[in-house]
Amino acid sequence: MIWSEMDTRTVTVNGLRVRYLEARPEVERDEPVLLIHGLGGWAENWAPVMPAIAASGRRALALDLPGFGESERARDPRYFDLEGGLYARTFTGLLDALGLDRVHLAGQSFGGAVAFIAAIAAPERVRSLTLVAPGGIAPVLPPGFRFLVLPFIEHIGRVRSTPRITREILYTCFNDPSLCPEEVVAEAIRYQGASLAEMVRVLRSGVSFWRGIREDLRQAWLSRRDRYKGPVLIVWGREDRLLSSGLVGEIAALSERAEAHVIPSCGHLVMIERPQELMHLMLPFLERAAAVPVGE
Question: What is the pLDDT of residue 201?
């Protein structure tokens, strides 16, 4: 299946072992596309669209963020700082390690916030920005996420996690759970232990049980959003039950160069449930972005 078309690699980024998937085109004619997964996710979340990206002449790269999937966890990180924070440093460090000047950058859910941070922290290295059901930019949390910051929740979750519960949680990310591949379920079961612990650490650094997403973090990002002046594509699933597609206008308003689309009959994991529809929007967007000279 599509998973067999990916090469799995590791690279050292700022002293951490980082795993990534790669799909290479026969002839590379544009800058690579770097894909960032959501909270508790892993690189293979993007596997359904990577062959199409490679077929368009672009190297497709999907990483496990530090602490997720098979990437090494950072110790005492400042996750969200624009200057010296883990995610900003991971982005520039990965590009340096791979010898890349710029990439088309895409992030889904929490990965959308990571991509947004990377774009405003190092705008000269981002050719275009795609946000798929992005979380953390608007002051809205998916239901139940506040409870993940409570003491000992990671230990409780580890005891209570079963393959059945993992499957049920994953199915909430789909409008039609029958479209969730068994490979994705197996990966969720495989990665849930490490991912849960890191997910809790990330949320505790950016979320208050009483107030939700820390407003000081959001305002630090939003006050610098004009540093990235490139094109933005926003895509949402209309039936997203974790983050309402009604947020799409609020996110699009953050950039004069944003275009927004809502895909019907689609939940939160757009790239898995509706990969062809996502590519129908994203590939022409990448063509338009590539046609604009760097810096304009």
Answer: 87
